TrEMBL record, chain A:
It comes from Herbiconiux daphne. Keywords: Cell membrane, Membrane, Transmembrane, Transmembrane helix. The keyword Cell membrane applies. This is ABC transporter permease. It is a multi-pass membrane protein. The chain crosses the membrane at residues 38-55, 75-101, 113-132, 139-159, 182-204, 235-254, 266-282, 289-308, 314-334.
From TrEMBL, chain B:
Residues 6-241, 251-495 form the ABC transporter domain. SUPFAM superfamilies: P-loop containing nucleoside triphosphate hydrolases. GO terms for molecular function: ATP binding. It comes from the Bacteria. InterPro entries: AAA+_ATPase, ABC_carbohydrate_import_ATPase, ABC_transporter-like_ATP-bd, ABC_transporter-like_CS, P-loop_NTPase. It comes from Herbiconiux daphne. This is Sugar ABC transporter ATP-binding protein. Signal peptide: none annotated. Keywords: ATP-binding, Nucleotide-binding, Repeat, Transport.
Length: 346, 507
């Protein structure tokens, strides 16, 4: 069966891959990754990882693997939360505050409650925060950026009310269960990230709700006209983002062995940067899980890389910015160059 | 009337102070095709949306099979066997065809398998003779015509009791319309009913058993098959005596060349030679997706393009961009008036002036006051129905919006105007007003390049028609050869013999 429409323009500047295996290049999974803009961040991560290992081969030792993954996993989880909101065409400015709040709730409740209850409470708080945003955005029709900016102040204040200085009751056992090693060379935090990512992938790709989330961001009117409850979908997406964020908050509290009411603040911009680097569309409907995770890994490790390369760490933001612009920009430039090269040849 | 499948009684829909529908009553029998005709703004689309459950009527009742229809829920309507293919496409662009076909059904938390969805979609497309559409392709990569086919396929999927086609043929090509009619006949043979909303009188003559004419939100009249003429229907719709449908192209007074390109190459174009004279109306024909949209975009500089030689109004250029094109004397009416043509949140006057704003000039009301004479002249010349230049462009009906996109190029010393199907989905009266404006422009010596999906327009109003096939010129028709059959024949790639699989096309 042949397609009459021209194939989707390649997102990534990888003619080598196209030449080496057009079948691989056009297989369903790869086409989906291409459409979701994930090829460029994946390629960027591979390049980054190779450079990193060349500059600092010590990364592949047990200790460094463990610290690096503990550094990266909370960011990856928060970025996934941000991705879900971005997929429905919103943006979550309160994600850092939600993270701080879940973080302190988890840490303080551990002092006198059993661990599973503390986890449930933290997840519940994340869900409640997400649903609060979601109701205002989906049912009251307010713009996501205004709603989440306002709620960021609310959640941030509540977090300071719950715990006004770093502390809480995170124990060594919890640290080992979330941030230790499962077996040598396999940090537990990566395993948790993988579990959550796979569950989230199943939800987004293999349930109707997940596809509705993509659809709502792609074109809300169409989804409505098709008889789908677009508002409910949006609300659930915000709630789901809150839950995923709470996982990130707990991973952060456990790996640092403290609860901190300001811990989430730096994650707001990093999560947005990771989603941008992942090639997601901020108008909604486009973005991939694997791309987001790898983008978060890249951004999260830049500081480390510069440290080992002996560069002043202030440069890490400049490098992050350059990577984002390059990864987002190269495919655009490539398409233009390819057109004029092709036009001149024929 | 008790055995009618659908009975709509006294439907009223008001949006604030605006009465879109003021009391419409009609019924539809099983196995019948009921046409719903009327000008834009007559309330057809609103009625169709109420039947589909997309909007709830302010008052009035709808019953299907004797049961009242749950109003205001597309889902409930779907479940009770009423399905609608909308004019404004209701497909999600980033979903694949398979996802669009299968996702609206089922609970949110039900598992979703791409494989099963693709298999189900292939089976459905196969059964509807649409197997050339790849169920794995994202809808945004399909041509407008294919998207509309998918939309219709989705509506047909549940074997509906009542199928509503709201301008569903507006982007379809003649073979596509034939396909649609075949499907409609299959459905009615099984006892299903179809409500066919369209502007195309030729199609209504062919397919409709009965019809209801709407005007200004009221029923203006009814007709049955074979009992009406185009002129009667037009006067019923317009509420005034009908005029002749197509104007003739004006006599050409000069041989000057307004635009010429040789070997124009761009995405989707395989080298096009074209020459457009001043005052000439040159039609572009062909099936959708064979390079017409790309040709116009390339000529206006909206898509990157290169050519061996390229002159606009005698000036040689090597490439162009939209800003430069406007300066060179080009005008462009794009395909999608809502997305590319207008700023819907801005006023009518500002939309007319859009190409003529410079960053350092006055804007807003002072500028509108300055240009008042020109704006009023355009609004009057095209009879745009608006409350004035300060009304938001988004609140106008489709036909009037299209007039704005066109009107901004009038009286502005244009040399060439590029038109992308300006009459798609607008009513008969608005069409005639546009035809007249196009002919008037040509009389002033402006070269008109006009892509239309309506073959009749090309045949009657153009001096000459160039038909594109697979990104290249398949045939040029002029004089006696300029007939509807020739245009359609060339469009499907059959120059001379009618062979659909012909690959080597004379160019």
């Amino acid at each position: 069966m042949s397609v009459t429409a021209p194939p989707a323009p390649p997102v990534a500047p990888k003619p080598a891959a196209a030449a080496s295996g057009p079948r691989f290049w056009n297989s369903t999974g790869v086409v989906r990754l291409r459409r979701e803009g994930a090829i460029a961040p994946i390629a960027a991560f591979v390049v980054f990882f190779v450079v990193y290992v060349i500059i600092n081969p010590e990364l592949l030792t047990r200790f460094q693997l463990q610290t690096a993954s503990n550094l990266v996993v909370p960011l990856a989880l928060v970025a996934l939360g941000q991705l879900i909101v971005v997929l429905v065409g919103g943006i979550d400015i309160s994600i850092g505050a939600i993270m701080s709040l879940c973080n302190v709730v988890f840490a303080t409740q551990l002092e006198h409650l059993p661990v599973p209850v503390a986890i449930l409470l933290s997840v519940g708080v994340g869900l409640a925060c997400g649903l609060f945003n979601g109701v205002l955005v989906a049912y009251a029709g307010l713009p996501a950026i205004a709603v989440t900016l306002a709620s960021a102040f609310i959640f941030g204040s509540i977090a300071r009310e719950v715990l006004d200085r770093p502390g809480g009751g995170v124990t060594k056992e919890i640290y080992l269960a979330t941030s230790g090693e499962l077996v040598p060379f396999v940090p537990v935090s990566l395993v948790w990230l993988a579990v959550i990512a796979v569950l989230l992938w199943l939800l987004l790709q293999r349930t109707a709700l997940g596809r509705h989330i993509y659809g709502v961001g792609s074109n809300m009117e169409s989804v409505r006209a098709a008889g789908i409850n677009a508002r409910l979908t949006k609300l659930l997406a915000f709630g789901l983002a809150g839950v995923v964020t709470s996982f990130g908050a707990m991973m952060l509290a456990s790996s640092t062995v403290t609860g901190d009411p300001r811990s989430g603040d730096p994650y707001l911009l990093s999560s947005i940067a990771a989603v941008a680097l992942a090639g997601a569309a901020f108008t909604g409907g486009k973005g991939s899980i694997i791309g987001t995770i790898l983008a978060a890994c890249t951004l999260g490790l830049i500081g480390n890389l510069l440290f080992f390369a002996g560069v002043n760490s202030y440069w890490q933001y400049v490098i992050s910015a350059l990577i984002i612009v390059a990864v987002v920009g190269i495919p655009v430039v490539w398409r233009r160059v390819a057109f004029f090269a092709k036009g001149a040849r024929s | 009337m008790t055995d009618s499948l659908l009975v709509a009684t006294d439907l009223v829909k008001t949006y604030g102070p605006v009465k879109a529908v003021r009391g419409v009553t009609f019924h539809c029998n099983p196995g019948e095709v009921l046409a719903l005709v009327g000008e834009n703004g007559a309330g057809k689309s609103t009625v169709a949306k109420m039947l589909a459950g997309a909007v709830a009527p302010t008052s009035g009742t709808i019953t299907v099979d004797g049961e009242p229809l749950a109003s205001g829920s597309v889902r409930q309507s779907r479940l009770s066997g009423v399905r609608c293919a909308f004019q404004e496409l209701a497909l999600v662009p980033d979903w694949t065809v398979a996802e669009n076909l299968s996702l609206p059904d089922g609970a949110p938390l039900k598992g979703f398998s791409q494989k099963k969805a693709v298999a189900a979609a292939s089976a459905l497309l196969e059964s509807l003779h649409l197997s050339r559409i790849d169920p794995r392709a994202a809808v945004s990569t399909l041509s407008l015509a294919d998207r509309q086919l998918v939309e219709i396929a989705r509506a047909l999927a549940g074997r509906p009791k009542l199928l509503i086609l709201d301008e569903a043929s507006s982007a379809l090509t003649p073979p596509g319309v034939e396909w649609l009619f075949a499907r409609i006949r299959e459905l009615t043979a099984e006892g299903g009913s179809v409500i066919y909303v369209s502007h195309r009188l030729g199609e209504i003559a062919q397919i409709a058993d009965r019809g209801t004419v709407l005007r200004d939100g009221l029923v203006a009249g009814e007709f049955v098959r074979g009992d009406w003429t185009d002129d009667e229907l037009i006067s019923l719709m317009a509420g005034r005596a009908a005029e002749r449908f197509f104007p003739d192209p004006p006599e050409r007074t000069t041989d000057a060349v307004a635009l010429s390109v040789t070997d124009l190459r761009s995405e989707g174009l395989r080298g096009i030679d074209l020459e457009l004279g001043a005052g000439e109306i040159l039609g572009i024909g062909g099936l959708q997706g064979h390079g017409q949209a790309e040709l116009l975009r390339a000529l206006f500089g909206a898509a990157p393009a290169v050519a061996d030689s390229w002159t606009v109004a005698g000036r040689s250029i090597s490439r162009t961009n939209p800003v430069r094109s406007v300066r060179l004397g080009l005008g462009y009416v794009p395909e999608d008036r809502k997305r590319e043509g207008l700023a819907l949140e801005m006023s009518v006057g500002e939309n007319l002036l859009a190409p003529w704003f410079k960053a350092y000039q006055l804007g807003g009301r002072p500028r509108l006051a300055q240009e008042r004479g020109w704006i009023d002249g355009i609004l009057k010349a095209l009879s745009v129905r608006t409350r004035g230049p300060n009304e938001l462009a988004g609140s106008l009906s489709g036909g009037n919006q299209q007039k704005l996109v066109f009107g901004r190029w009038m009286d502005r010393s244009r040399r060439v105007v590029l038109l992308h199907d300006p009459t798609r989905g607008i009513d008969v009266r608005a069409k005639q007003e546009l035809y007249r404006a196009i002919v008037d422009l040509a009389k002033e010596g402006v070269g008109i390049l006009w892509f239309s999906t309506e073959v009749e327009e090309l045949v009657h109003v153009c001096h000459r028609v160039v038909v594109l096939y697979q990104g290249a010129v398949a045939d040029e028709l002029i004089g006696d050869r300029l007939t509807a059959d020739a245009v359609v024949g060339a469009a499907v790639g059959a120059t001379g013999s009618l062979n659909l699989t012909t690959e080597g096309v004379a160019s």
